[in-house]
Design goal:
Elements (H helix, E strand, L loop, with lengths): L18 E9 L5 E9 L5 E6 L7 H12 L3 E5 L3 H4 L10 H5 L4 H16 L8 E7 L1 H9 L8 E5 L23 E8 L5 H14 L3 E10 L11 H18 L1
Parallel strand pairs: 3-4, 3-5, 5-6, 6-7, 7-8
Antiparallel strand pairs: 1-2, 2-4
C-alpha cells in the first residue's frame, strides 16, 4: 500500500521556524498546468527540494513533508502528476487516482519535474543553486529516473521505488549509465513487490555505471514505512530521515 490520506510524515515539526508556504500552478514544457505546493524558509538558502508523491499525487502528506524540509532550511516544492487528466483543483478523498496514473508516462513526469526544478532556480523560487529530488513509491522511481533526465540535479533520493523495467519502459537499472547525480535509495525489507534481488540489481547497475550511491534496506520494514501511523517502524524512519539530510548536505 501507499500512504493513507490521513498519514503524516514521521518527522518532528520545528515550532517557530520562519517558513512561508503557498499553493502554486506550474507550467510544464508541453504547456500543461500542474498543481504544486511550495514551502520556503524565510532565511536565504541555496538548496531546493522537489518532492515527488506516491501514486495518489499531491495531498496533505507531501505538503507537510515540504514544510518539514523548509523548517530545516531547504526550499521545497511538492508536485502533482495529473494536470493533463485531472486539472489543478484540490481533490477530495474520492479521487480515482488509478485511472490517472495509467495515463502518465515517464516523459510527462520528467517534464513536470523539470517545471519544479526551473521554479526553484528562478528568482520567484529563490534562485536555488543545488536542487534535489526526493520521491516515494511511484515518485521514488521517478526521482532516480530524474538523475538521468538532464535536470542538472545535485542528487536523487527515492523511498521504496521500483528499480527495473516496467510495461516495456526502462527503469533506474536500465538507465543507470545515463545518471549524472548521486543516488540514495531507501528500501523496505518486507516489500511485497520490490525484492532483495531488485535492490541488489540497482546497487550493481549504479556501481557498474560509476554513480555515487547508497542502497539501504530496512529489514522488516513494509512498503510505505515512512509514516507516523506506523510507529513500530519509527527507528527506520528516523534513520532514513537522517540519511536524507546528510545526503543533501554532503552533495549541496
Amino acid at each position: 500500500m501507499c500512504f493513507e490520506l490521513d498519514s503524516l510524515p514521521p518527522v518532528p515539526e520545528i515550532a517557530g521556524a520562519a517558513v512561508s508556504h503557498d499553493d502554486l500552478v506550474l507550467r510544464s514544457a508541453d504547456g500543461t498546468q500542474l498543481a504544486a505546493f511550495a514551502a520556503t524558509p524565510d532565511a536565504p538558502a541555496g538548496v531546493g527540494i522537489v518532492v515527488l508523491p506516491d501514486i495518489r499525487g499531491l495531498y496533505r502528506f507531501y505538503e507537510e513533508l515540504a514544510l518539514r524540509f523548509a523548517e530545516r532550511g531547504y526550499a521545497a516544492v511538492a508536485i502533482d502528476y495529473f494536470g493533463r487528466t485531472a486539472g489543478v483543483a484540490k481533490r477530495d478523498d474520492s479521487f480515482d487516482y488509478p485511472e490517472h496514473v495509467a495515463q502518465t508516462d515517464p516523459a510527462s513526469v520528467q517534464a513536470d519535474i523539470g517545471a519544479a526544478v526551473a521554479w526553484l532556480r528562478s528568482p520567484e523560487g529563490g534562485a536555488r543553486e543545488h536542487v534535489f529530488t526526493v520521491g516515494f513509491c511511484f515518485g521514488g522511481r521517478h526521482s532516480w529516473l530524474a538523475a538521468a533526465a538532464g535536470h542538472g540535479l545535485a542528487g536523487a533520493v527515492g523511498f521504496y521505488g521500483s528499480t527495473g523495467e516496467r510495461n516495456g519502459r526502462p527503469g533506474p537499472v536500465q538507465l543507470a549509465e545515463q545518471m549524472t547525480a548521486p543516488v540514495l535509495a531507501l528500501q523496505a525489507g518486507d516489500d511485497a513487490n520490490i525484492t532483495a534481488d531488485d535492490n541488489d540489481a540497482l546497487d550493481r547497475a549504479l556501481t557498474e555505471a560509476g554513480v555515487t550511491h547508497e542502497v539501504v534496506t530496512y529489514a522488516g520494514a513494509p512498503h510505505s514505512f515512512f509514516d507516523r501511523r506506523q510507529s513500530e517502524h519509527q527507528a527506520a524512519s528516523d534513520d532514513a530521515w537522517a540519511r536524507v539530510l546528510r545526503f543533501i548536505d554532503a552533495n549541496a
